[in-house]
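okkk here we go again. third time trying to get the magnesium ion bound version out, last two times i messed up the smiles copy paste (missing a bracket lol). double checked this time i swear
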Amino acid sequence: MGEMRPQGTPVKWAVVANGENRRVHLFAVAAEEAGCGTPRVVEWSDVLRDGGHDFADDEVVRLDSPGENADVDRLLRGADGPTRVEGSARWYAGFLDGVRSLRGGRRLDDPADLAVLFDKRLCHARLDAAGVPVPQSPTSGAARPVEGWSDVRRLMEEAGLRRAFVKLAHGSSASGVLAVETSATGRVRATTSVERTADGSLHNSLRVRRYSDEAEIAAIVDTLAPDGLHIERWLPKASLGDRSADLRVVVVAGRATHVVVRTSRSPLTNLHLGGTRGDLSAVRTLAGDRWAHALGISEQAAACFPDTLCVGVDLLPAIGWRRYAVGEVNAFGDLLPRLTGLPGSGAEGLDTYATQVAAVRSLSGVRLAPPFDAPPRTAHAHS
Ligand SMILES: Nc1ncnc2c1ncn2[C@@H]1O[C@H](COP(=O)(O)OP(=O)(O)O)[C@@H](O)[C@H]1O
Ligand SMILES: [Mg+2]
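finally!!
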């Protein structure tokens, strides 16, 4: 069992992150304002180069994203250039090795949870098994390897999917995501931010584009496939005005505390691709009595990762705002600057970082998992 921290007990924070970025800054402000002092920052690049890091037994360790850093990206993906799409399978293996190399401390992110959160096939299967609504998928649990475009077409056909999302198993920030449509006459169209250059390499671009030449779509998917692919039904999303919308719901210590609406003219709502924050009160009106249900699904999804303090749930509203499915659960989905908590959530007036600091200090009790290198709980139970 983990331990309960009485209210007011000072917490010594350590953060594993990439230098002085915005996430680190915002979290430091939250810790300082709560009287916890400035968190100790441990660089991902040092962890990876040194083969681990030792934390003091009383340090509470928060992992932050290893992304958006060329040096760390090179170490993890072996990528030649920050925009390259290829290399996510190697990134996944390297990231998990890095997490498992941490020693001591009290962690807020469970390595076994992270292994599932960063594999969309495993994440889908875990949510599905728990009864969380998810889009239908022929690749759930990585049951079906996808070797290339011909497999994608076959799996879509077998599953009866005319329209599907094809995603990198270990992708994030819409990298390597294609929204694929097939017509009765066999024509294909793919909407994606992937840009294929003349030499056949793939790059993340900031512009969403459409491909309608099947040979080119096949070339893209065949290049993505060695890193692992996940396929799921394309859910027609609800709209807000003339834009399609989804929700990012941050869940801290089991409670949905922060929500942003993301809207876009394209099926990809990611903010860096031109998605914009939508009007939450308009969404609450449209959802009506189903709003509590939407938050409940998000909390149910987060409960699949009980040893992880904070997750960001991508909630896909079906047309009409009555039904919802979980698109994915993000380990580092809490970068929502200046956003304060929902009324009644206990996080009123707090941003996502202050909410996590408060949760760890609160009596209501966040279980702090055992140190990184302790044997898993189930092993304890049998010994
Ligand atoms: N099955 C789906 N149906 C409709 N839209 C989807 C589906 N899956 C993902 N999306 C949309 O695609 C975008 C990126 O998908 P996501 O799975 O979150 O990938 P990433 O981890 O790269 O952000 C989001 O805007 C989301 O709304
Ligand atoms: Mg996402």
